[in-house]
Amino acid sequence: LQVGDRCYEEGMYEAAKLLYNNVSNFARLASTLVHLGEYQAAVDSGRKANSTRTWKEVCFACVDGKEFRLAQICGLHIVIHADELEELISYYQDRGYFEELIALLEAALGLERAHMGMFTELAILYSKFKPQKMREHLELFWSRVNIPKVLRAAEQAHLWAELVFLYDKYEEYDNAIITMMNHPTDAWKEGQFKDIIAKVANVELYYKALQFYLDYKPLLINDLLLVLSPRLDHTRTVNFFSKDAMQYAAESKDAELAEKLLQWFLEEGKQECFAACLFTCYDLLHPDVVLELAWRHNIMDFAMPYFIQVMREYLTKVDKLDASESLRKEEEQVAEPTPIVFGR
Fold first, then answer.
1. Residue 160 in contact with residue 179, Cβ under 8 Å?
2. What pTM was computed for the model?
3. Higher pLDDT residue, 192 or 264?
């Protein structure tokens, strides 16, 4: 054995090969065969040695020799050890062999000793290099991945739909809803949104969801309200929609619509909304109509700030007219020539 080691150290690999073979030192024989470029024989010796160290040496040599089929055979004996996985992945990635690394991990998923690290690292690789395969992988194996780690990878890769899927499985419902609202084109799905919104902890998200639907899917707002109605503060919800209705009426420039909205607020007993609408739709309203509505419903107090503003504007206009008229008369007096009177 010592002679074999000396031959190996001095680069006499053929001689070392014979000596190691004679004494059945398969670990050293595998190392020797790697140096000789006899990769298949090295794998066979590695199988007989059956040590992680030998498998790693032969695997890395096969990667360097671009013998990826043989490297995968060795790799399957390495990835089952969680503490060896990172080094193996780095060896492939540092050399740019992403496809071959993915193929290795895919082949390893069916092993009896497959562990969470393998499923997790494959998900991260998919997020970087094969995003189209990540969703199926997560649907099959979400319970076997390290979700926080994969969440970070999905976010960095801007895989918003996959991010929502993981947030849902991890019971981070608030983040799932926020992600769908921030990235609706990629992440929003009606059924999924309605399922998750009912589970959020932050009630403010209910009202953000209502605004999101008004902006993005207004025709589906009633479906969302059916889901949220048991959880909403009804007064706040009505005020939420009242504000939206006021804004719409103001932007429409339609005086009749604004006056109908005022009447509706009074019929529903929403005097605060009536008062707010007077200013939101100020330029569209006729003071005589407002006065009549306020008098009939005995809510002059709510309308008084509006009438003060109307009166202030009226007086300002009158003052401007008076000033303009005075200026005009002064100009006429200056411009009018003094008649010349000749003595008789």
1. yes
2. 0.73
3. 192
